[in-house]
Amino acid sequence: MYLGIDIGTSGVKSVLVDEEDAILAEASAPLGVSRPRPQWSEQDPRDWWRATEATLDALAAGHRELMGRVRAIGLSGQMLGVALLDGEGEPLRPALLWSDGRAARDGHALEAEIASFASLTGARAMAGFCAPKLRWLTRHEPEHVAGARWILLPKDHVRLHLCGEAASDRADSSATLLMDTTAGDWSDAILECCGVRRAQLPRLVESAEPAGTLRATLARRWGLPPDTPVAGGAGDNMCGGVGAGVVADGDACISLGTSGVYFVANRRFAPSLDHGMHTHRHAVRGLYCQQAVVLSAAAALSWVAGIVGAHDIGALVAEVEQADIASDETPLFAPYLGGERTPHDDLSLTAAFAGLGFATERLHLVQAVMEGVALALRDCQDALESAGATPARPMLIGGGARSRLWTSLIASALDRTLSVPDGSATGPALGAARLARAAVGGKLVAAHPAGRAVAPDSARRDALAAKRGAFADLAGRQSR
What we know:
Largest sheet: 5 strands, mixed
Radius of gyration: 21 Å
């Protein structure tokens, strides 16, 4: 039995997985995001731990016997978060999240000072990444950076609570843009530019390598075996890939969560130099991963649900599916609620509807948002292919994969058949559990889950293809 914990943006999910990759139990707890100023996005790191405690308390209460059989724990987490902690592991300020856009100027400065920045790290110094944000904090809040004993990613803050170890894996850490990605170690030149000391950063391990053991008090609390190993784990995109079986060169998946991530495994290090893409180390040793990102995916659906007064998003999606609206009847929506990463790398972009009329009703708006995310993912696919990636039949994972309509819209916009595995909504947590198993000598992937193939719908494909020019114009008009 293996325990996978995923510290996401909107919540924490923990799962118990057996030797054959079957998920036998799961629990979740919500998280909120604070946006105190435009383009700012923060969370209290203490909430990550409280939510993790809640999920493990729930599993211990309902599945004590299974918890007693756990052999190892794996961690997944939202990437790019910056938590500044004191010597007791307490936060000095709220954590800056992946969706925080305040550090664009600092990213430009980093690239000016280190000419080979993207070739060294695998990506441009975009505002949401850790290196620019740490430079911003050094300029604006130097006392917090100087006073931090540890600078940790979200899942690694949870690890510190679980086992008292300040450690991180090389996959998640490569996405901080503080690393020499091929060397697999922190870059002293980048650290100096960001005002960070190497001693403030965690030691680095492989994703499928033990990084500590569970505290005895917590083992007793949750009925887990003493000295349970905690694996290095990885960022949620990498763990989502492992959970979907994207573990070989050329494999691909799309994660449809708060953001939308198009993820392609590659044995070759191919730094992303433009179009808002990024390349990091994969959780699978010897592989890298090329990623393209839509910043607002399920987040856009949550937003429009609030606009139309729907409190149950699942019921709203079911209502849209029942309405059977043709794509040529819906308005156009650009999902740039918090700017966009791929392919625009422009956090000043804003969301927009176009083509509204007297016949437009609430369900038309909701489907337009789903279509807009699908069209944005097509932009991601085009950008990846321009960089040499060749995703043939991506897997679709994440909470949004529960919707058959959204799945069909994405397949049709991409003009690709998608594989949707069973249990797709638990991808990163499953991936974390798989890494835990591998860390104690087991198979990384024991079984590929059954699922369904979703082919493009010809009518939707044609309607969405006809909208692509106008969709590009919506972003183009704002960037001029």
